[in-house]
Amino acid sequence: MTGGSLGLRSGSYGSLQHLQNGSFHCQPQYVGRKPSKMLPSGAREKEKIFPLRCRFLCSTRVGMLILVVFASLVFLSGFSTVNKDAQESNSVSITQHQHISQIPYENGEFGQDLPFIFPGIEIEQKDVEGTMTGSGENNRHYPPPAFHHLCENFAFPPPPPPNRKRVGPRPCPVCYLPVKQAMASIPSSSSPSPLLKQLNYVHEENPIKTEPHGGSEFGGYPSLKQRNDSYDIKESMTVHCGFVTGSKPGRHTGFDIDEADLKELEQPHEVIVASAIFGNYDVIQDPQNISRAAIKNIPFYMFIDEETEAYIKKKNSSALVSSNRIGLWRIILVHNIPYTDARRNGKNYLYSIPKLLLHRIFPNVRYSIWIDGKLQLLVDPYQVLERFLWRQNASLAISRHYTRFDVFEEAEANKAGGKYDNVSIDHQIEFYKKEGLTPYSEAKLPITSDVPEGCVIVKEHIPITNLFTCLWFNEVDRFTSRDQLSFAIVRDKIMAKVDWKIDMFLDCERRNFVYQVYHKDVLDHMSPPPPVVHPPPLVRPPPRDAVIPGNRRGAVIPENMAGRTPARKNPPKRGRGGERRSGSRRHRRVGPGFRDNNSI
């Protein structure tokens, strides 16, 4: 077959589209039908009757009648189908809900366990049934459909550059799942804790300090040998982790909490959000954009001391009387606070207790989100957890510092900013040098930074992450309260023993879901905002037939002229050129002895 004979057959009339001059050209096939002269009389009769039938069927009333009959038939057939499938509706609904609730969280595979059910989270029974009921083929468990993450094609843009109006770091876009899908992404089981399975804590009624840099009474004065042994990861371990004295955390341990509040903190929760303000240092910021499901299921706890409580009651005496709540925050009052020594900057040490030891204060919590008191949460907690923990298959997430990646540079910046006394910072850095800490370089990849921005910590409470925050707190308790300096040494020592990692996301991503407010002392010294100047009120137009004061003879303003300012007419010019025409309707004042020629 030659190339010239190739063509495409048209779907309309069976013609060929021949290739001419390198392109296809459609051949028009409009063939008019002519009545045959050889048809018998019977056929001619039928051809005459056929148009009449079409005209009759196309009439308005007959056509509407046909449509109604056809619609009724369709409705009856569909109704019978629904009744026929009514017995199978429950099993299909259960399977579909199970497919939606199973979300891949490890190696892209669907988990086979049921969704994690915890007190406080209400899940309908149909959402947790695993198989369809019945017999025969209906008893089989159908595999779930392929899951496509809504954010899998999200292209991460670089953060916007600074400008004259807004210098410094800025937030960047982050792709979050809708709240319902984020809630459905909760893993059905806890993340694996490498090697470490059981973590216990040291309890001593009267701890004794044996070394000059042994920490504090609240931390139990761990010796240097005990510190080194705590990095030897085993299946079962006992370490110092604050709250050394007393029967349980918050009861005669320092950082004491009322009994009623302790009972609430021991309640099981799947997710909590926590923050703290001590020394009246910040202003409470109510979270924004929180879903109804999160408000119902996730408690928000704010720890304050007595000084902060006194200020709140002074500003609003009824704020803490009725329900101990301010907005979404449930206020927890702390007594007998440790770290009162001014040389150790007790306020900063005090913040490290709830920040790093939430797993001790909340023993029955699965996930926690810590935010500093200067921050305001702007994104739903379920969306934060899905984005920074569950999607990354991580058990702890923290943002990296926005400019510094090296511990040695961070130490110099702390000394330059007067964050802590220089002697203590130098002692800590020299100690870490002897233990093998080196400046950050590309050789540490995939580790992206040695310096965190520790104002936000997203954590799953499992033994390995609890050990990490315990040892991190011990370093803060032993050396300085600048937790950015001790983060890397604890992380590297644990990662050298077990296969575990920390998700360090970008600082601009952190700024996407929290808003940073100035500390209260800065706000008190800032000049008040300029007064708001309100525009003058609009003058309403006068009503119909209004009498304008000062109008000659109290003339009535016509309706079409109401609200307009009458134009002021210029007086007539004197002289020859200023004579008014005789047809003018304006009456001139006539003096004595003057006679108008036009007057009668």
Annotation keywords:
single chain, 600 residues, alpha/beta, 17 helices, 16 strands, globular, disordered N terminus, disordered C terminus
Structure explained in plain terms:
The protein is α/β, with parallel strands linked by helices. The chain is 29% helix and 12% strand. The strands form four sheets. Strands 6, 7, 8, 9, 10, 11, 13, 14 and 15 form a nine-stranded mixed beta sheet that branches. Strands 1-2-3 form a three-stranded antiparallel beta sheet, with no helix packed on it. Helix 7 (292-297) links the parallel strand 7 and strand 8 (300-304). The longest helix is centred in the first third of the chain and has 25 residues, at 60-84. It starts with 6 loop residues before the first strand and ends in a 75-residue tail after the last helix.
- The chain-level structural class is alpha/beta
Oligomer: single chain
Q: What average pLDDT do the residues reach?
A: 75
**Sheet with the most strands?**
9 strands, mixed
Rg measurement, Å: 41 Å
- Helical run tally: 17
- Low-pLDDT runs: 1-41, 82-146, 590-600
Give the overall silhouette.
globular
Q: What share of the residues lie within helices? A: 25-40%
Instruction: Give the N-terminus to C-terminus distance in angstroms.
Output: 116 Å
How many runs of DSSP E, i.e. beta strands? 16
Per DSSP, what share of the residues sits in E-state strands of 2 or more residues?
5-15%
Describe the protein's topology.
Layout: E1 7-9, E2 16-20, E3 23-25, H1 41-57, H2 60-84, H3 89-101, H4 179-184, E4 198-201, H5 224-229, E5 236-239, E6 256-257, H6 259-265, E7 269-277, H7 292-297, E8 300-304, H8 306-315, E9 325-326, E10 329-335, H9 346-356, H10 358-361, E11 365-371, E12 375-377, H11 381-390, E13 396-400, H12 407-416, H13 422-434, E14 452-460, H14 463-478, H15 487-495, E15 503-505, H16 507-513, E16 514-516, H17 520-525
Parallel strand pairs: 4-5, 7-8, 7-11, 8-10, 13-15
Antiparallel strand pairs: 1-2, 2-3, 6-10, 9-10, 11-14, 12-16, 13-14
